[in-house]
Amino acid sequence: MTEKAYEMTVGLEVHVELLTRSKMFCRCSTRFGDPPNTNVCPVCLGLPGALPVPNLEAVKLALRAALGLGAKINLESGFDRKNYFYPDLTKGYQITQYRTPLAQDGSIEISEPKKRIRIRRIHLEEDTGKSIHAGDDITTAGYSLIDFNRSGVPLIEIVSEPDIASPEEARQYLEKLQRTLRFAGVSDVKMEEGSMRVDCNISVRPTGSTRPGVPVEIKNLSSFRAVVKALSYEFERQVAALEAGERVVRETRHWDEAKNVTRPMRAKETSEDYRYFPEPDLPPLVLDEAFIREVRDNMPRLPDEIAAYYTEKLGLTEYDAQVLTLDPNLCSFFEKCVEKGAEPKMAANWIMGEVLGYMNRAGLTYEEIPVTPENLVELLELIKAGTISGKIAKDVLVKTIETGKSPSVVVEEEGLRQVSDEGELLAIIEQVIAANPGPVQDVRNGKEKAIGFLVGQVMKATKGRANPAKVNIMLKEKILS
Prior knowledge:
By secondary structure, this protein is of the alpha+beta class. It has helices at residues 56-68, 167-183, 224-243, 271-274, 289-297, 303-312, 318-324, 328-339, 344-362, 373-384, 390-403, 407-414, 422-435, 437-444, 449-461, 468-480; strands spanning 6-17, 72-73, 76-77, 80-83, 93-96, 103-111, 114-126, 130-133, 144-147, 154-160, 196-206, 216-221, 251-256, 261-267, 277-278, 285-286. It is 40% helix and 20% strand.
């Protein structure tokens, strides 16, 4: 059988750290990057007699996530103990929501192909500590160290239905989820810092079969690239096993980034293995409609709503709107430019082209946009007024970023003001005509492309400062008169 004779079914479990200043059940800081084991207390270390108290802000942020994903809120949910024994879990159990989650039945729509990925449940829980292995490979490390700063950081786990049919669909789902949570202010969703992590559940079956394949879990993927590569590899591995007549084992596997393979970690646990039972130290989590309404009324705008406004009210293309809503900081920057008088399409083009291009080359994040809205708007006004050409404006932008000076100051100090004076241009045009008799004759013979060459020569002579539209007209008048 060929590869096309099989299909994959994927469900994703996404763990997202909430953007709170303190942990889920204690007052310890959630600040990332502090020295190991400095943000800990008896509660998050699970010491005897320490009692958990839920973080109200974490509940509000989890509700924001649920509302942003169109999920149904359960007015009463509860906390449970999930029992397992790993070095990074001091209590020997994790406080989570098993029986009744905070919310369920949400969805995310992807575009290629256009389909809706259902979300089964969204539940609150606490994070574990972090293991640091002495070596590149967990299987060969001589020892491991544990940092408990992350232990107890509030999480939501977002569990999709197995509606995803390819690595590309998984990527689209995760990108849309990340954008939604970032705009909702739920999390910084920085995968490089571990505040968004992905577990993939993948099964393979013959195409068209209604019988589910054996699910295999791939744990703790920390980039979209890793998700795509791990799913692609695991699909190939399971197909090869099935074609060889082997049995696919239900297990949890680790993605080896260095070798681009998945490796067995352990047999896949079931709910019975975790011995769930209600958390005896916490009462049920009971919400009322007024509380939910307050959270809903204070929801930030989400990407789809903003993109619709950009296309319907500001006249931008769908592509423009999607790029500008990649991040709240980028979105805010664009809107400030428009508020200060920039023409929306012109501002969008410059932000997507020159500003983002500079940021990509410099390795800057969306939090580090290197030019102020005021300076970009001033630059666009100089172009519209004919003070500088679009080509010169690109150099002005770079100088503005690197010096901190306003575009007007850069133009004056560098002598970049566009040459529009007819007397000055005429002298240069006459020199160009005298030096290029061949192209001049081509223009007289009706060859339009030749005029472009001559305009280029004038622009070269003026170091790009001539007004190209005026040069074009003046050349034709001089040559054809």
